[in-house]
Design brief:
Largest sheet: 7 strands, mixed
CATH topology: Rossmann fold
Number of helices: 5
Oligomer: single chain
Radius of gyration: 16 Å
Number of strands: 9
Shape: globular
Helix content: 25-40%
């Protein structure tokens, strides 16, 4: 399925990727969770992936903090993204690599956290986000985890196991789905039946 999805994304023209990313970002900003959050935990886009620059700029414009993922061995942690940060270097897979010296951000101590994770989510097979979310939820973090992706990435079902962490919602360029009450802090929006895995 990963190979099939990679081919499907590769077929999207850069101009369409840009437009789809902007539409998904706008939908994401319309969720109650966006208004509720203090800190946005947001992935940095790799080539061919939904672009998150609009989300990061919007969060900063509203005075919200932004943290980005840093892979270390088999785990992932989030570091604070400085306002004047240069564009991060990329690894051999094209994944942006934040500066390890940037201050770490612990979700359990960060106030109200909105985690923006790629996709409806088979992921890339390493389980980074599953382990991160499991630890954060066990530590009592006040977080909502909403996936964001293009419509082309949504499939009826994905393989999953006991270690997979569920999303609270999913936003694409064409629709917003909320799966849990946590996806709508304060209950101001309805929730959708179903589920997705982080």
């Amino acid at each position: 399925m990963r190979r099939w999805m990679k081919g499907r994304l590769a077929a999207i023209r850069p101009a369409d990727l840009k437009v789809g990313s902007a539409r998904a970002a706008e939908r994401f900003r319309q969720t109650v969770a966006w208004r509720w959050m203090d800190v946005l935990f947001c992935f940095l886009s790799m080539p061919g992936e939904l672009v998150t620059e609009d989300l990061i700029r919007a969060a900063r414009a509203e005075g919200k903090a932004v943290a980005v993922p840093l892979i270390e061995g088999d785990d992932i942690r989030f570091v604070s993204l400085p306002a004047d940060a240069p564009e991060p270097a990329r690894d051999r897979w094209g994944i942006p690599v934040p500066d390890p010296s940037w201050p770490g951000v612990e979700p359990a101590r960060a106030g109200r956290v909105l985690v923006c994770t790629p996709g409806n989510r088979l992921g890339r097979g390493k389980g980074y986000y599953d382990r991160f979310l499991s630890r954060a939820r066990a530590a009592g973090a006040r977080l909502v985890c909403i996936g964001i992706c293009l419509t082309e990435q949504v499939v009826p079902d994905v393989p999953h196991g006991d270690a997979d962490q569920s999303l609270d919602g999913l936003v694409t360029d064409t629709e917003t789905r909320l799966f849990t009450q946590e996806g709508s802090p304060g209950g101001a929006e309805g929730s959708a039946e179903g589920g997705a895995k982080a």
